[in-house]
Amino acid sequence: MRLEEMLKYNEEFVAGKKYEAYKTDSIPNKRMVVFTCMESRLVELLPKALNIQNGDVKMLKNAGAIIRKPFDSIMKSILVAVFNLKAEEVVVIGHHDCGMSHVDTNALVQTMNDKGIDEKTLHTLEHAGIDFHEEFHGFDTVEESIQQSVDIIRNHPLLPTYVKVHGLVIDPGTGKVDIVAKDQ
């Protein structure tokens, strides 16, 4: 079992005091929040490509680096980082070849059904006012999606004007980063 392997490793990690190399406080050294995709290819590549060390940034992730609503959990986390953890910059980083691009929500529903999610459950969501297709749709281009997230953050009524918000896109094969939106 993978969890058992991880827990065994953790015991050795703690016993060997390997954590000492990572000690830092909760305030990000670079006073920055990085909001990116949960893409597994970026776990090590993104920090290395941007020279981000342990303790440098607050790292937030979700599928596609997507913010659609001004008061979703990612936006709340950004605001906490700004007001409680001294962050002064936010960088939204999407990536090419993202699984959230062109999501077929009908196929997703079918996969859910195939894996045991009852059709009645999905109908219950509809009756509760949750539009499944709106919640799970992806995006056509990563650049448009990043710009949308940047715009929601920049225009948030609780974000102080001194906070800079940028948008980048990274190539998950090479680590090359391009600017989508740069705050002055």
Can you tell me about this structure?
This protein is of the alpha/beta class. The chain has a domain at 24-103 and 138-181: Carbonic anhydrase (Beta-carbonic Anhydrase, Chain A). It has seven helices and five strands, in the order αβαβαβααααββ. A five-stranded mixed sheet has the order 2-1-3-4-5, sandwiched between helices.
Provide a brief overview of the structure.
With 184 residues, the protein is an alpha/beta fold.
Radius of gyration in whole Å, from Cα? 19 Å
Low-confidence stretches: none
Strand content: 15-25%
CATH class of the domain at 24-103 and 138-181: Alpha Beta
> How would you describe the shape?
globular
Main β-sheet, in a few words?
5 strands, mixed
- Mean pLDDT score, rounded? 95
Topology:
Blueprint: H1 2-15, E1 32-37, H2 42-49, E2 57-62, H3 73-85, E3 89-95, H4 105-114, H5 119-127, H6 132-136, H7 142-154, E4 164-170, E5 177-181
Parallel strand pairs: 1-2, 1-3, 3-4
Antiparallel strand pairs: 4-5
List keywords for this structure.
5 strands; single chain; alpha/beta; 184 residues; 5-stranded mixed sheet; Beta-carbonic Anhydrase, Chain A
